[in-house]
């Protein structure tokens, strides 16, 4: 450990990742669960993409946004798989400084892109319910492409400085991370320098992305609810709300752990360490696992197409 600590005084440092503390003896068995999660998630999102691409009747805004969400989820899986499975399968705990910074860049970028995709899907439901006559003209393919590109550029531009802000530090503290992957909130705490700039910048970009997106999603559903309540037909009201259920589930699956993890990192104490570890895995692995399942269950058209592909 002393040699590792000495290494952290230079920029050739290595960080030590952590699996599940106290469960090292059963890491190999735990790895089976993680492997299943990765396989199911990758297959599920790949099937969603294949179905939407090959079925012209699904080339609608709602399903195009769903395909964007699936691509983002696949990116998150690829970004976390090497370190998570490396620890549980091979007990490979070391990660170099540059590899750690690269991983946190992709994790944070893709997380912010996923937040943006959920906002676009909320906008899709808002237009479909509150302004259905203009739905096709507002959400045309060129506009969807431009919105997608804008949000991807926003995430990349905001996260791009983080690795460079971290690289300027000297790391001379205990270099053990709490997770099986690298995140900015935790890596910056290992520096033996003033981290106020990183802390302020990290909080600012979180507010400009996740904070703003979640607020706009909330406002969209306020307008949707007002419109639905104004519909005189009870059946039509329920039908309109039912089209939002899968999106609401995706929003809750994503934002609950994502908003909770930074709060615990900044204000938590030693008693919240286990919750921090659990939320870290939930934050990265549960949305990619559950999104294809939720949308397949709630969309009759998508579910029917999947059944035809596998059981024809």
TrEMBL record:
One of its GO terms (cellular component) is plasma membrane. The chain crosses the membrane at residues 26-52, 64-89, 101-123, 144-166, 200-219, 240-258, 278-297. Its main location: membrane. GO terms for biological process: cellular response to lipid. It comes from the Eukaryota. GO terms for molecular function: G protein-coupled receptor activity; olfactory receptor activity. Pfam families: 7tm_4. Residues 44-295 form the G-protein coupled receptors family 1 profile domain. Keywords: Cell membrane, G-protein coupled receptor, Membrane, Olfaction, Receptor, Sensory transduction, Transducer, Transmembrane, Transmembrane helix. Belongs to the G-protein coupled receptor 1 family. This is Olfactory receptor.
